[in-house]
Amino acid sequence: MTFSIARLRLDSETLAIAFAAVLGLGLVFVAGFANASAVHDAAHDQRHAIAFPCH
Amino acid sequence: MTSRTLTGALIAGLVAGLLAAALNLWALTPLIQEAETFEGATVHVHEDGTEHVHEAAHSHEAAPEGLARSFGTVATTLVAYAGFGLLLGVGMATAARMGHAPGLRTGLLWGLGGFAAIQLAPAVGLPPELPGTASADLAARQMWWALCAASTATGLAALAFGRNAGVAALGVALVLLPHLLGAPQPPSHDGLVPPGLAAAFATRSLGVAALSWALLGALTGLLAQRAPRGALA
């Protein structure tokens, strides 16, 4: 019983970590890589500042 | 513990992003605007050897200016650092589950590691550049940047947490790999941006990033540490 509860908690933590990883990568992609021109124009100075390849 | 660490990492990302955005507007944006006066300009050499620069009339006509431009910089810097924070939180939460408890000092080390992986190592191959600097194909540079960041981060993790010489050697190899492959370079480094301006920009960019990542890591560690021990979720 204890074991299975521990397993359950372990799995929800794994899910939380995986979700955070996907969300984090997504945010970095939008800020640094997304091609849409509205995103590019708003992010222009930030991309140069953080040295994401730009232009 | 895990979700407290991740939530704390997101908060730390927004705080570090505010610092980075303020430093960007103060130290970097003026250099970008100065460089834009050279971007798209052409050097006209006369037959007698004298030369002068024809400035581009409008190189960024569609780009936002003034307050809208500053707002874009602040907003997208927050987005970038929220992402960096989450990824750092993912690393720290994973390490915590393997017995490496997070804290202020370990967090600072994590932050410096993140700086090395996301900023310093990519800058070795692709120095932070101003508009108007000569550079290779964008997609190739983006690919190398992502490879370099991922490879350096994995390599540093292997060096930090590996328990034997084999893992450490793999770590060293992963850190060196992107530089052995080499970043895509332009055919020549000719550009119209003055070298002094480009040098100041690259140095300041790395300085701003180092400060922001140090704060990001330390704060993420501190917020994770404050989480009550044994608390569920």
Structure report:
Chain B: The chain crosses the membrane at residues 74-95, 107-124, 144-162, 167-185, 205-224. Chain B: It comes from Rubellimicrobium roseum. Chain B: This is Cobalt transporter. Chain B: Keywords: Membrane, Transmembrane, Transmembrane helix. The complex is a heterodimer of chains A (55) and B (233). With 55 residues, chain A is mainly α. Chain A is 82% helix and 0% strand. Chain A has two helices and no strands. The mean pLDDT of chain A is 86. By secondary structure, chain B is mainly alpha-helical. The N and C termini of chain B lie close together (6 Å). Chain B has helices at residues 2-36, 66-97, 104-125, 138-161, 165-181, 195-226, and strands at residues 42-45, 51-54. The longest helix of chain B has 35 residues, at 2-36. Chain B has a domain at 2-41 and 60-135 and 186-226. Chain B has six helices and two strands, in the order αββααααα. In chain B, helix 1 runs antiparallel to helix 2, helix 2 (66-97) packs across helix 6 and helix 4 (138-161) runs antiparallel to helix 5. The A-B interface holds A 9, 12-13, 16-17, 20-21, 23-33, 37, 39, 41-55 and B 2-3, 6, 9, 20-21, 24, 28-29, 32, 60, 62-64, 69, 71-73, 75-77, 79-80, 82-87, 89-90, 93-94, 97, 119, 122-123, 126-131, 135, 138, 141-142, 145, 201, 205, 208-209, 232-233.
